[in-house]
Design goal:
The structure holds two protein chains of two kinds.
Chain A: H1 22-30, H2 34-49, E1 54-57, E2 69-74, E3 88-91, H3 101-114, E4 118-121, E5 128-131, H4 135-147, E6 163-164, H5 178-188, H6 190-194, E7 204-207, H7 216-219, E8 222-228, E9 233-234, H8 236-244, H9 250-255, E10 263-265, E11 270-272, H10 282-286, E12 291-292, E13 297-303, E14 317-323, H11 339-353, H12 360-367, H13 369-376, H14 402-406
Parallel strand pairs in A: 6-7, 7-8
Antiparallel strand pairs in A: 1-2, 2-3, 3-5, 4-5, 8-13, 9-12, 10-11, 13-14
Helix pairs in contact in A: 1-2, 3-4, 12-13
Chain B: H1 7-21, H2 29-39, H3 46-58, E1 63-67, E2 69-73
Antiparallel strand pairs in B: 1-2
The complex binds iron/sulfur cluster (2 copies).
Residues 165-167, 171, 173-174, 207-209, 211-213 of chain A line the site of one iron/sulfur cluster.
């Protein structure tokens, strides 16, 4: 009888080469877990037949929750009884994926007993993805992970598990505390995370700076990207050091690649016209010892990104150019304290007007940004215009001679 | 303006709506909220609807389902399901 713990046939190809192989990982799991053994068999069958043998279930879950479990059944249960059910559980990851090793060990122990012992660390939304268990094991698994302090994440038409970059925990560019904000928003919207009330999914992602390591601009409906309002701090000594000691061609590598052409370098001094800087981080990334972001920090909020599902992919666009994230807050500025009202207004409108499976970005496209802003009570602002420098509808006062302008 | 329904009365109205449509139409939470606002004009809000849905789901009388989007339905065995191994 064939050794069920070994992948042969076409799957063997996926073990070749020096690279990590998920097949080798499943083989390891198969040494002690029958689900993993049948998973190898089922996968081989799928490769041979070029057919998916999974059926998507839509009902299984844990009591009270409408998300966090994705039902999966195989369509050849007689042949592979141990993966007859192979449900996925999404578990809310800690902010920025920091774990204590004993927590990881405990989680692994639970999943070895109650599931296939196979994880995906982490899914694209950010959750820990527990791959493969049976319907009767769902509630006991949920009980055990909640006792450890974990909870299920989001799936379906809910607020998906918020995620954030590593932020100030390890990164000097963090313009706000992404971990704190991700945690606070997760806790504030537990109901929206577990009980579907939206037309479709909604994602928050928190990036500490415009480098956007969590790809929030592409992968979340509402992106929070750290930025600053004042000037880039320049250490001219260090700039010259880059040019001389590091042989950095500042004109070519930094100045010419500034997207708004707001920099100049005369071989001795670097100048930045901060009014025209879009805070893209390029120059700072290249000369990080010489240039630092300003100290008046906060985040920009963007709305509407999504991957292609019903309509094509789109990036999010600016909704709030600058939100101050940490006190002291001035009376006339947009601050973190205004965030709940903004989120409520967006969800209220989208809930009322959104069609089934319509993402908020698609709603904006359908009704128009002007109407959308009007409905949620925000004024249009120049920062919301894509490519303002080349947009023929945007007029600038370039500060030239009045007489000349009239001619 | 008519009297506001209690949370339990609202839950009953929701249950009836879902039960009557079973097998014919699937409702999302927001569809149910909109219908309840029409049924009890000016007396029902989102918070009440959420609470009523919670009662129905937590008691197991209704369940969340996912078929492309999330719906609220009567508990039933789905077509894709294989029998529980525990049974
Ligand atoms: S997005 Fe910015 S702050 Fe966050 S980890 Fe990346 S570089 Fe650091
Ligand atoms: S941050 Fe970007 S836009 Fe601003 S000066 Fe540097 S390269 Fe130019």
């Amino acid at each position: 009888m064939a050794d069920k713990t070994k992948a042969e046939g076409m799957l063997a190809e996926l073990k070749k080469g020096p690279y990590p192989s998920f097949i080798r990982d499943i083989e390891l799991a198969a040494e002690t877990n029958k689900m993993a053994q049948d998973l190898i068999g089922l996968l081989e069958l799928s490769y041979q037949e070029k057919l998916c043998h999974w059926k998507h279930g839509g009902i299984v879950g844990v009591m009270g929750y409408g998300g966090g479990v994705i039902g999966r059944y195989c369509d050849v249960p007689e042949e592979f009884p141990n993966v007859s059910h192979f449900h996925t559980m999404r578990v809310n990851q800690p902010a920025a994926w920091f774990y204590k090793t004993d927590a990881l060990r405990s989680i692994c122990d639970i999943w070895e007993r109650r599931g296939s012992s196979i994880f995906n660390m982490h899914g694209s939304t950010g959750d820990m993805v527990f791959l493969g268990t049976t319907t009767p094991e769902l509630e006991p698994t949920f009980d055990e992970i909640t006792k450890l302090g974990f909870d299920l994440g989001g799936s379906g038409s809910v607020l998906r598990t918020p995620s954030c970059c590593v932020g100030p925990a390890r990164c000097e560019w963090a313009m706000y505390d992404t971990l704190k904000v991700a945690y606070e928003q997760t806790m504030a919207y537990q109901d929206e995370l577990h009980r579907p009330y939206f037309p479709y999914k909604f994602k928050f992602k928190f990036a500490g700076c415009p480098n956007d390591c969590v790809a929030s601009i592409a992968r979340s409906d509402m992106s929070f990207i750290g930025t600053w309002r004042d000037d880039i701090r320049i250490d001219q000594e260090k700039v010259r050091w880059y040019a001389k000691d590091m042989n950095l061609d500042i004109s070519d590598v930094v100045v010419d690649r500034c997207p708004t052409k707001c920099m100049s370098w005369n071989g001795k001094e670097l100048k930045i016209d901060n009014r025209n800087c879009t805070r893209c981080m390029h120059c700072i990334n290249v000369m990080h010892l010489a240039l630092k972001p300003g100290m008046d920090r906060g985040c920009s909020i963007l709305l509407g990104a999504k991957a292609p599902i019903l309509e094509g992919a789109q990036l999010s666009s600016v909704l709030v150019p600058f939100m101050k994230m940490e006190p002291p807050f001035a009376e006339d500025e947009v601050t973190y304290e205004d965030l709940p009202d903004l989120i409520d207004a967006i969800w209220e409108l989208w809930g009322e007007e959104g069609k089934n499976r319509e993402r908020v970005g698609e709603l904006i496209q359908r009704i128009g940004m002007g109407n959308f802003l009007d409905a949620i009570g925000l004024d249009p602002q120049p920062e919301m215009v894509a490519h303002p420098r080349t947009n023929p509808y945007v007029f600038y006062d370039l500060g030239g001679d009045d007489d000349e302008e009239e001619e | 303006m008519a009297d506001a329904p209690t949370i339990e009365e609202l839950a009953e109205a929701m249950y009836k709506m879902v039960k009557d449509a079973a097998g014919k139409k699937q409702y999302k939470a927001m569809d149910i909220q909109k219908a309840m606002k029409q049924l009890y004009p000016g007396t029902v809000d989102k918070k009440m609807c959420k609470e009523s849905i919670k009662i129905l789901i937590n008691s197991g009388r209704l369940v969340y389902t996912y078929f492309g989007g999330s719906f609220i339905e009567l508990p039933h065995t789905e077509a894709a399901a294989n029998p529980d191994k525990a049974e």
